[in-house]
Amino acid sequence: MTRAVVIGAGIAGLAAAAAVSPFFDGVVVFDKDDLPTGPRPRKGTAQDTQVHILLKGGEIWLERLLPGTRAALLAAGAVEVRQAEDVSMWERDAWQAMRDLGHSQLMMSRPAYEHALRRQVMALDKVEFRDRTAVDALPKDTDLVVVATGRGDRLLGDVDVPATSLGIEVNYTSARFAKPPRFRGEGRFIGCIPLPPDDRYGLVCPVENDEWLITLCSRFDNKVPTDLEGFRARAASLPVPDIADRLAEAVPLGPFSSYRIARATWRHFERAVDRLPPRVLPIGDCISSFNPTFGQGMSVAAGHAVALREALAASKNLDDVAAAYLPRAAEVSGQAWGMAAATDLEYPRTEGERPPGFERMLQGSEAMRRAAALHPEVHLLRFEIGNMVKSSAAARSGPAARLVAKEMLRRS
Ligand SMILES: Cc1cc2nc3c(=O)[nH]c(=O)nc-3n(C[C@H](O)[C@H](O)[C@H](O)COP(=O)(O)OP(=O)(O)OC[C@H]3O[C@@H](n4cnc5c(N)ncnc54)[C@H](O)[C@@H]3O)c2cc1C
Predict the structure, then answer these.
(1) What top-level class would CATH report for the domain 3-78+109-161+262-343?
(2) Domain extents for the chain?
(3) Backbone φ, ψ for residue 362 (5° rounding)
(4) 9 in contact with ligand 1, CB cutoff 6 A
(5) Which of 25, 36, 55, 283 shows its CA 20 to 30 Å from the CA of 109?
(6) pLDDT of residue 411
(7) What pTM was computed for the model?
(8) Distance from the CA of 13 to the center of ligand 1, in angstroms?
(9) Is 259 in the pocket of ligand 1 (CB under 6 A)?
(10) Environment class of residue 377 by beta-carbon count within 10 Å: exposed (0-12), middle (13-18) or buried (19+)?
């Protein structure tokens, strides 16, 4: 009998259990929390009351790991948001174009995503859950251990791993709202992310039960008020009125909750394969955790899990899996990190090293944004790279890439 253990039943742990289950006789998933029977927030995932967006790439990866995921999310009340007709996104100094890109994204609250996925994984006959079990040391009596304990991981704390880290100081404050009658049935996602160094931004996410999850964010010491009046006033200070308009009549369904993300961290386990205990593999936030504004964490966890499944399929021996898996997982983290870090480092107060050629990189991403407004094919490419459907390398060749290069030349 071969047995795998997954520690942590967040999105990364669930995706990991699905990824490894075909290769073992049994998989046990441990979590310290009392896992709820419904879509409810829980202590071990304190970020779960904030807006969580599943990228298109994440949805595709989850569907590969757990066929039927898209249908399960829709059945659990996910709102299908068509890209980009159902999206009002104010980015820097302009609205993004609203046109049909042929994609849609499924939006719901993080507890609802997790609950729907947990049900999918529970239905796999080889997987068993043991909740209310905090694991304080790596288990020894097992064939493979996947560590999915999140950004606060301690189980691999003694492993000497090189890390990249940015001091980002992002603050999120969110609440669920009942929609006023004139907005009922509206499945519109609204975002307002002004030009740096302005660090106030906001997101209105349509979620299950025809409710809104509204998040206002800031960086550094520019805290978002946690009372209704202050929250509304902060929304009214954004450069476009769309979020404040919705908040004016929306009724909060619970308290405001805040979450502070001091640092983005990427632990380069791929450069320390031999330093990990044998047959112990990290996944999800335990490897890389970003500024969440770009909605990448759950999708990256799913991408890691696909990498894990491919590494297991390609390895003759369980001792070889780490060397096959960790570089693949690093590629997934790298794409997300590149996008988030480029924006973070544009804020002068972000602590971290600006890579060589950083200004040129910013000019490239600005050229792509402007070209996307003009050309549907660039808009689609930008969506697909940002949503991890395509790798960043896709921006370097092809007709859309040539339009971006032309835009860059035009402005230089
Ligand atoms: C404010 C905020 C907003 C975010 N928004 C988005 C978004 O829009 N889109 C997106 O994709 N991602 C978002 N994320 C990131 C996302 O939450 C995570 O990246 C994603 O859920 C993957 O996390 P994980 O499963 O690796 O870790 P976690 O979600 O932290 O789960 C870790 C699990 O391990 C358990 N655990 C921990 N220690 C132990 C132990 N010793 N023994 C047993 N169990 C243990 C915990 O109870 C928990 O269940 C956001 C994050 C934050 C902070």
Answers:
(1) alpha beta
(2) 3-78+109-161+262-343, 358-411
(3) -65, -40
(4) yes
(5) 283
(6) 74
(7) 0.97
(8) 9
(9) yes
(10) middle
